């Protein structure tokens, strides 16, 4: 429940089949979607039918926004997708005085 005692509805997104690059599993997840102005960008990973199942489920759960599926097959090599890529990056440290 929420802090105010409102019951939550939990929905399960499908999980893409495991994919490895070398010996490291890459984190393909439809949970790495991103809310943008009037839409939701949903990562896809070239896995039918799981890509389509995730797109359809998010479309039903978020009917007031356009669902925009975008291939993240290559982006996930960086160990994330659209939500991760949109996060703030820390400022670089100034160089140490010599």
Summarize the structure.
The protein has 98 residues and is α+β, with helices and mostly antiparallel strands.
Write the layout of secondary structure elements.
Elements (H helix, E strand, L loop, with lengths): L19 E2 L2 E2 L8 E3 L2 E6 L5 H12 L4 E6 L10 H4 L13
Parallel strand pairs: 4-5
Antiparallel strand pairs: 1-2, 3-4
Please provide a written account of the structure.
The protein is of the alpha+beta class and 98 residues long. It has helices spanning 50-61, 82-85, and strands spanning 20-21, 24-25, 34-36, 39-44, 66-71. It has a three-stranded mixed beta sheet with strand order 3-4-5, covered by helices on one side. The chain has a two-stranded antiparallel sheet with strand order 1-2. The chain is extended, with a radius of gyration of 17 Å. 16% of the residues are buried.
Compressed to H and E, one letter per element, the order equals: EEEEHEH
Helix content: 10-25%
Oligomer: single chain
Total beta strands: 5
Task: State the shape.
Answer: extended
**Main sheet characteristics:** 3 strands, mixed
- Cα(first) to Cα(last) distance is 55 Å
Q: What portion of the residues fall into strands of 2 or more residues?
A: 15-25%
| Biggest sheet, spatial arrangement of strands | 3-4-5
In DSSP terms (H or I, runs of 4 or more residues), the helix count works out at 2
Briefly note the structural class of the backbone. alpha+beta
Cα gyration radius (Å)? 17 Å
* Low-pLDDT regions: none
Summarize model confidence as the mean pLDDT.
Answer: 86
């Amino acid at each position: 429940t929420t802090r105010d005692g409102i019951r939550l509805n939990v929905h399960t997104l499908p999980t893409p089949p495991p994919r490895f690059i070398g010996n490291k599993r890459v984190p393909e997840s439809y949970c790495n979607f991103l809310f943008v102005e009037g839409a939701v960008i949903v990562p896809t990973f070239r896995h039918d039918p799981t890509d389509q199942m995730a797109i359809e489920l998010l479309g039903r759960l978020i009917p007031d926004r356009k669902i925009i599926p975008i291939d993240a097959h290559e982006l996930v090599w960086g160990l994330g997708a659209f939500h991760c890529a949109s996060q703030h990056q820390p400022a670089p440290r100034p160089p140490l005085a010599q």
